[in-house]
Amino acid sequence: MRILVAGGDGFCGWPTALHLSKRGHEVAIADSLIRRKWDEELGTQSLTPIASLEERVAAWREASGKSIPVYIGDLMSYEFVEHMFKEFQPDAIVHFAEQRSAPYSMIDREHAVFTQMNNVVGNLNVLYAIKDITPDCHLIKLGTMGEYGTPNIDIEEGYIKIQHKGREDVLPYPKQPFSFYHLSKVHDSHNIMFACKSWGIRATDLNQGVVYGLWTEETRQAEALYNRVDYDGVFGTALNRFCIQAATGHPLTVYGKGGQTRAFLDIRDTVQCIELAALHPAEPGEFRVFNQFTEQFSVLELAERVQRVAAERFSLQAEIAHLPNPRVEKEEHYYHAVHTKLLDLGLQPHLLSDDLIADLIETATRYRDRVDFDVIAPSSTWR
Ligand code: NAD
């Protein structure tokens, strides 16, 4: 298949592009490289050293013999999107290219407005390009489990059957997002659903959990293929952040009680899920929703697990610090989300193992000199 990976220079996009290329698909990457600029803005950097996108694709050509053409540009520019669709003629577009940090979206008005413009406008341009240039192209869009919030009932995969005053319908599952970032994903979902209904395009919304790990078979092959991994208070996510904190002697930063339960998956499962979605496209006019995760954990449970592995495998005594919670969220709640559709398509999950945690701690130990303690504490607040 011809697959365009938008956001292919990012944490999920880069390993996905390599995985799809390795599996024999014709892959192109689109990226504005803005993620690298956010590092500069926040005074941080990936724990692992990452090569430029140009060096990355050159290293991949050398390692695999396969070329990945690159389109550098902003999805907010329709001229750019139109040119790329006309030239590459994708069978599928995997759309990762958004501002993905909830804390970044909550810094102030400018960052909230930027996040929603970047995400909603970019996605709308992609929808129009599909409609006008490649109407059969399957949109595989990254959403988030955070769109649903934490309702006191089971979370279904996109839709729920409701009985009301003697009548029944299957309706979109209610959304109670956590931040202006998560809200941008809800707006995207609505726009995609409407476009599927109105124009007959095909789309899969992947409501992804928090992704942990960084290595895939392909990204380990050469230093220029290494994936990025974030540890700072704005872009660093639970588990990856805890492992890096344990390795560097920083307390593990749990916000509030730590009973916040979320859905998680290994980056090796992200790349698998994307290929499964591409190989089994939605029907024309169908807006399909998959909950893309493999397990759920509370934040404290993860911190305690990292603490145990750090002690058992490395004799490191990691301390857990309960920081005042910068977010407005429930710290103890019911959480149970359905996630069977990707398993039905053949997903073989990599469940969280002590070995994976140890591998992350080892990686962080190798690059501990790149860690700046000043950027670890949460710097934006919801209130
Ligand atoms: P990332 O920030 O590492 O990568 C996103 C990439 O998109 C970056 O390379 C950035 O330069 C590019 N980009 C952003 N806006 C763009 C624009 N307007 N035009 C062109 N390129 C643009 O993020 P990630 O962690 O790889 O996440 C990828 C997607 O998956 C996001 O949509 C995110 O919301 C979703 N997601 C991620 C996680 C996670 O744990 N990382 C969890 C759930 C959902």
UniProtKB/TrEMBL annotation:
NAD-dependent epimerase/dehydratase domain sequence ranges: 3-291
CDD domains: SQD1_like_SDR_e
EC number(s) recorded for this UniProt protein: 3.13.1.1
Keywords on record: Hydrolase
Annotated InterPro entries: Epimerase_deHydtase, NAD(P)-bd_dom_sf
Keyword Cytoplasm: no
This protein's name: UDP-sulfoquinovose synthase
